[in-house]
Every structure is written in structure tokens, then in C-alpha cells.
Amino acid sequence: MNDKVLELSEATSRQRRNLLLTSVALMLTSYAGVNFGDNLKLLGASVKLTNPEVILTFLMVSHIYFAWRFYQYFHVDQAYVALRSQYKNLLDKKLDQILMGYLFRSLPKGVTSITGNYSYSQISKTRENHGFYEVKVDFPSGQDSENSSKIVAVPTKIFKLRGIPVALKFMFRGKILTDYYLPFSLALYALVINFPFI
Q1: Threshold 0.70, pTM exceeds
Q2: Going by C-beta distance under 8 Å and a sequence separation of 6 or more, which residues neighbour residue 111?
Q3: Scanning 31, 46, 137, 138, which has its CA 20 to 30 A from the CA of 67?
């Protein structure tokens, strides 16, 4: 399965920009102590605001709207499909490395190579037997004078919790942080510090 490439469209990037702008505006409003006064200059004319608090409410509503729109556009770009594909391929590669390392360590003395394809996705489809996967490993004839294969009991525990370090590595290696988690984290933070609009 080939990696799907995470590429955001211009429309999705625009929604992300709008979300980031409202997030920054709300954080500045909270931390810089911005107060909306009664008077507003508009094209040189003085405008009196009888309810200046509505500006913050407008910012909050716009903020929620842009967050929803970014979420929708992210789906349209099939970004979740791309991220899942990238993560699954990275995890499968790591689990395959663990499996192959264990198989080679379990080979009879003098056997240095094996034939056939072995992957975690294959053995995980077989029935587990008391915490072990039974894998028949074939190797070229002549390496072992008595056998050309061996049944290796692979413990399932060596694969447990392997998804956590892979997930952390995946988050920090690609666009998932900058393109998705960061905008939504800032959006949520900006929403929390301004709740309940005071």
C-alpha cells in the first residue's frame, strides 16, 4: 500500500489561515487586555457603539465558524485518509522489522537466510495460540543438514504498545502537527481563555 500524500488545497489552506487569524485575535484580546470602547473611527467618521461587547461575541462566532469550515475542508481533501495511510505504513514497517529480527534470532545455528515473505499483517491474521503466533520459516536447503524449515513461536507481547512510539514519531516527522493539530490546538486554546466572553 503506497503512502497517500497529504496535500491541502488552496481552499483548505485559506480556511486554516482564517482560523489562525481569529485564534491570534482572541488570544491578543485576552492577554493584551484589549477593551472595546464606545467610539470607533470608520473612514474618518466617528461611530458610537452602544454595545461594544458584541465585537468579542462576533469574533467568537467567527472563530467557531472557521474551525468548522476548516474541519469540513480537511475532510474534502481526504486528509484523514492520507494521514491514516501514512501512519499504518509506518507502523507496519516497524512491526515487520520486529518480526524479522525475532525470526532471524530464532533460526538454527548456521542458518543465515530465509526464503519467502513474512510480515506482521500476515501472521496477525492467524490464530493466536496461548500468546504466540506460530510461523513456519523456510530457509535454503544446505544451510541446515537436517531441515529446510522451522516452526517459530513468536510471542505476541513483542508487538504490544509499539504503536505509541510510532505515533509520536509520526506526529513530529510530518505535516500532521503544523497542518492539523497546531491550528486546532490554538483554536481550542483561544476559545477556552475567552470563555465565557469576559
Answers
A1: no
A2: 139, 143, 144
A3: 31
